[in-house]
Amino acid sequence: MFIMKLNKSKKAAILATVLSGAVFGHVVEAAPLSVVTAYDSMMGSATDIVLINGSYVNSTIEANTTVAIENAANGDMKTYLFLDNGKTSAYVGAYSLGSEAGDDYLYDANDWSAPVAQGNPNAAVNVFDAVRKGDYVYLAGSDNGVVGIAKVNDGQLSTNSNSIIDDLHNLGMVSKDDGWQAWCRALSLDGDYLYASAVISDASWNYSNGYLLKYAIDSSTGELTLTSAAKMGVGQQYSSIARYNNLFFNAGLGGMNAQGVPGSNFETSLNMAELNNDGDFISKNDNDTNAVILPSNVQGYTLRDIKVMPDGTAYIFSNDEMAGMMGNSPENYVYKTTVSNLYSTNPEDWQVVYASNASGYESNIDVEYNTKRVWVMDGNNLLIFVDGQDEPIVFNQNQLSSDGLKPVNQGGWSGVVKSESIKGNFAKLRDGEEKILNANAIWSNDATAVGQITESKDFANNKTVTIGNEELGDVENNILAAVYAKDSNITVNADGTTLGLQVENSVGTPVGIYAGDGNSAEVNAETINIITKGVIGGNSLNNAVMLDAVAEGTQSAITVNGNVNIAMTGGNGGNGIAVQKTDRWIGDFTANCYNDEVYNSSHYFSYREASFTAKNPAIITINGDVSVKGADNQTWGIEANRDNVFSRFNNAGIVTTVNNSQVNVNGSVDMDVYGNGVAVKAEGSSVTIAEGGQITVPKGTNYGYYALAAYNGEINMNMGEDGATVGVDDVVLNGDLFALKNGAINVALVTANSELNGIVDSAGTTDIYLQNGATWNNVQNNGRYVLDYEDAGSGSFVDDIYVGASNVTNFYGGDSLETAGVINQGTGSADLTIDNYSGHTVVVYDHNANNPTDIYGGDVTITVAAANSAIVLSTLPTFNVSEKDTVNAVMGSLAGKLYYTDYVANGENLDATVQIAKGLVTGAVSKRVGDIEFETLKGQGSLDAGSIRDVGGQDPTDPDTPTDPDTPTDPEEPTDKPTEDQGGNTSTGPSLKNPKVETEVMKGAKSAMAATSMMWRAEANDLMKRMGDLRIAEGEHGIWAKYYSTKYEMDAQNAKYTNNYKAYQLGYDKKIGNWTVGAAASYGDGESTYANGRGDNSVVSLGIYGAWNGKDGQYVDLIMKRSKLDNEFTINGGAAVGEMEADYSAWATSISAEYGKRFETSKGFYVEPSAEITMGRVEGEDYATSTTKAGKMFVQQDDYDTLVGRLGLRIGQKLDKASYYAKLAVAKEFCGDYDTKYADQYGNTNSTSMSFGDTWYEMQIGGTAQLNDNSYIYASYERNFGADVEQKWRVDAGLRFTF
To answer: Any idea what DSSP says for residue 231?
Structure first.
């Protein structure tokens, strides 16, 4: 079978693109991927530089090459492409035997009309490799054995260099006195380190061992410092440096390049150096060259180059260059194997995937992991194996030179341009929050752990599967899995238990659950914790759950019945749950052949299985919840792929890469992923998350990261197991959504706690349900890498900056305004286009505080609206809403933000209004509302001036209006007060009418204040609860300590909170006659949750007390306490207000007295009636809160007075060394009014009132036990009934010593 030979004379841009099984015929903007130099003769006078162009994100290769420079007379030229800061540049070096042949040049690879910089860097002679880092280009100087440093500065290339012999001599590895010379042949850049490969020879070119050198780069000067080196094999003339985690590989030709007879070069070697944990090469003895043990089918063939992929797949090229020159028939091979096989002491044969008998100087390979292209430069033919295409694309001499006559130069192909790494600071996760450990992500050191599971197992108890670094992966695919279903179906039954699957490896690819080769895995457990660990700082990629689909026959499957927790560290991360193939070549390599008639060479190859094809669906089913979380709440569950800048190839929590594959999560998700949360990348594939959950991805970066990303396929979230039934769960998406033309996203945000925090960047189909108070904050989270333009959503690049826009195909709002969702078009929000709109929605806009008619945020365009649809455009009253002219002008500007394209045909379908919304202190009944009408040309909205109306409320000049709490006055005498807006300007105007409607932040604030005050009231008489202990104690002095924990709840009077409180008390007392007097200190700490927020509160108290005990059973207890109350809370005020934060303190004083009498009967039984009264005051406090979107709210909390009376009856028994009792009481609050005033910074005010004057009942049981003559313990349990503030439970425990 012969493949098509592409000819540059064909003018049509025929593209051999394979993307998920579909052949495309266009690249948005073809990029220069590789460069070839061809010449007329050795050190020739006519050299061509030819570019091969294609796609960064799929397998597209342009049929036509581009001749960048034609017939240059600069001798032996070599060209190197590199990416840096989104720019592709080319370094062109000219060489004349023994010296440079003139200036070297730096070009913009997209514009060859003139060089960007030039100079004569004679420090590096005969450049064999080049890499770029910022303004510095590092050069492999072959003939003079240096690493050259060319600085790009104002169009000039100025150079410096490091002598390899000198550096090795200084490191003590080579002696300069022995006459050795070095030949620097390859470079590799890794962050702030540069690796260089050097050949060592004597003056007659007799090669000795080579070296791999590690240099640290000074980021300010570009200078290099050698930090470590490793001895390698002989003659690394043409091999690149291949890295896999802490392993570095290159190939050595052997002495004098080769022996000229294929199969007889036994000095050739493949070499592997290893870094230790300190980043230094592991020392070997002088005779150890770090050579890999070669399998029998490779021995004797000259090894020329190696490439290693992040999944551990390795490609090696053997080429007998000298054979043709010595009259022998060359035998050239491309082998495929794995790092595990290379590391093995008993390797299996490498798979031959390509062979030829081609002659020529240039023979190398390159492999692209992301786009799955394999490049083979063999003599004068460049073969490119494209993903999904059976036969390679071939560029022969006709396409690789301007006239079709020039052969490829020695060193004339530099491989494929390497993707650059992430630059800048990495996004942090929940920075500033209190660190909370994740127990599911902690590596277990269980001594009973078992090893790899390769057959069905049953576990009755919790079990951990542990695989450590001492193991190697499968030599065929490099996989090292805890559950490995490759040779047979596996079922692991651990029902009702926790199953830990933890794999750590630097050579094999760590996987938790794997199924492949048509076999399936089923895991049954209550909880499955999967932890994978690679090398910290390494470059490998792995999957925690991996289904390795097959193209034909019985398909593999994975089913997990239980909750799955995933944590991945080390390497470059990977995917949590993935349907993804390993790299496979099918059939014998002799089955297919291409003949080059010009050079009379034959090229044989195997078929490479497409990475995306599958005849039968490959399905992963998780019947439970999925968590992808780090070791704590500030650590990503999956780390960043530092070597990737294209969004399509991001790590993902869940990903499909195979056609028609499925991942079905019949539960919810909770994922923190430095990449894409969920991604579908293959035709007909889908991910369905039946319920809701949260997904968080990075924000504030210059790269595209998406919570949901549909490149090809469908994502469903909170849409039921069928993907079509709207769910009822909370959904929080902290990240943008993205869809290409063949992608679809369906997500239901239908609860008040649901949020979409990001844009919907879509060129595909996106269905969004936004209902029941769910919020969409339509603000772009990230930029995009400047060369990541091929995957285009609804945004675009403007001056190399990505400007996002939102596009929704079908938008489903609430059934009514009361069940509507909220779109926050705040400052910096994107334009929003809705193709098909239905239901009801509120859109909230920001505006300029100094000029409120200046509305911030993108436009909203509705193309088509369903009948009976409605939309409300709203903005906060960050101005005095009593100024009607200002209000009307603001509403007019707001109306202009809405466009309705179908207005002329179906204008009646959409009821559009504008309003001044509920603010910090202005309630819903105070809104001013107007209708929007649309012009016929573009459908832009405008305010219907005659429709403006107020909704409810009183006149703004009503004298009952409360005044600003900062300036309290008699409500009968309203005043005008100066107010300060956000811009610092002051104005005077009448106060707003009192709407008597509480805003969400008012409700939250009064709940927080009430929680702290009620916590104080509950312990105002707390010392009374231990006075009874004194009456059984003996001794003149006593020291005591007590701990108690309690829970309070309130859901009344527009206040709702739950307060969990714990307190610690310490006291000392002394007997004086019939009195016992003492002092005590206490500290209480509470955590509160509110209907729309949370808080922390505390009470610190000092008290004195006295207890009088009469001989006839009467007693009197007296207490006085002084307390400080601290209250810190955060309230969610909704999309318009944002979060409100407050932190204040208040002082309080209380006095309590109790009288009672104990009537004892026989055997120690007693009845004890009592009466108690407690009075106190929490002093008023003025404080200011801050909000993220609506400025400040000022709060004036009035004094809170309490007077509680209590009648009780205790029944118990006193034993010799113990007592126990039960007590019932009725209590009534005779005061309890709680009044608060609020004001915003624009002159609007409001107030709230609460009354705690109710009656409730208390129940308590407890007891005291004597441990010895002078120590006692006591404990009690109590709760109350019938009050607005309900004590759900309280538990006390204490200890007392007397002496």
So the answer is: E
Asked if residue 1061 lies in contact with residue 1084, where contact means CB atoms within 8 angstroms, the answer is yes
**1125 token code pair:** 């109350």
**What is the three-state SS of 422-448?**
CCCCCCCCCCCCCCCECHHHCCCCCCC
Cα separation, 735 vs 749, in Å, equals 14
Residue given tokens 């060193």 in the structure block: 411
Question: Look-up: residue for tokens 């019932």?
Answer: 1224
H-only helix segments in 926-1064: 1000-1018, 1024-1030
Beta strands in 826-917 (DSSP E): 832-838, 840-847, 855-856, 860-865, 869-875, 898-900, 910-916
Can you state the percent helix, strand and coil of the chain, rounding each to 5?
5, 50, 40
The CA distances from residue 1101 to 782, 1020, 1022, 1039, 1122, in Å, are 49, 9, 11, 17, 6
Question: Any idea which of 142-146, 205-209, 1103-1107, 1140-1144 has the lowest mean pLDDT?
Answer: 205-209
CA distance to 251, 648, 692, 701, 760, per residue, from 655 (Å)? 35, 11, 17, 22, 19
Which tokens hold the place of 1296? 């007392």
If DSSP codes are grouped into helix, strand and coil, which group holds residue 685? strand
CA distance 873 to 893: 11
Q: Alpha-carbon distance 575 to 661, whole Å?
A: 16
CA 232, distance to chain mean position in Å, is 40
CA distances from 197 to 98, 187, 457, 722, 837 (A): 20, 6, 49, 56, 62
Distance from C-alpha of 1127 to C-alpha of 1124, rounded to nearest angstrom: 10
Q: Three-class SS string for 44-74?
A: CCCEEEEEEEECCCCCCEECCCEEEEEEECC
What is the pLDDT at residue 234?
A: 82
CB 574 within 8 A of CB 580: no
3-class SS of residue 1162: helix
Q: How far apart are CA 44 and CA 405, in angstroms?
A: 13
From residue 829, alpha-carbon distances to 92, 145, 757 in Å are: 45, 56, 11
**What's residue 26's pLDDT?**
37
**What average pLDDT does this structure show over 1020-1049?**
75
**Contacts of 849 by beta carbon, 8 Å cutoff, 6+ apart:** 878, 879, 981, 982, 983, 1191
Alpha-carbon distance of 1135 to 756, in angstroms, equals 11
What pLDDT does 73 receive?
A: 67
Mean pLDDT calculated for residue range 1181-1185 = 93
Length of the chain (residues): 1299
Which of 1071 and 158 is assigned the larger pLDDT? 1071
**Residue burial 26-55, b: 16+ Cβ < 10 Å; e: rest:** ebeebbbbbbbbbbbeeebebbbbbbbbbb
CA-wise closest residue to 1184 among 1176, 1198, 1173, 1195: 1195
Q: How are beta strands 136-141 and 479-485 bridged, if at all?
A: unpaired
Give Cβ neighbours of residue 1195 (< 8 Å, ≥ 6 apart). Answer: 965, 1005, 1142, 1144, 1182, 1183, 1184, 1185, 1236, 1237, 1238
What would you report as the CA-atom Rg of the chain, rounded to the nearest whole angstrom?
38
What is the widest separation between alpha-carbon atoms in the chain?
A: 126
Helix or strand holding residue 569 (H, E): strand 557-569
Query: Residue 563: which of 668, 461, 493, 463 has the closest Cα?
Result: 668
Please, which residues bridge with residue 438 across strands?
none
Tokens of 1215: 């034993």
Question: Residues 480, 684, 624, 679: what is their CA dihedral angle, to the nearest 10 degrees?
Answer: 70
Rounded to 5 degrees, φ, ψ at 174 are -140, 145
In whole angstroms, give the CA distance from residue 883 to residue 753. 35
Read off the pTM.
0.82
- Strand-pairing partners, residue 319, are none
Instruction: Give the CA count within 13 Å in the CB-facing half-sphere of 956.
Output: 18
- Label residue 340 left, alpha or beta by phi (over 0 means left) and psi (-120 to 50 means alpha): alpha
Identify the residue whose tokens are 């896999």: 244
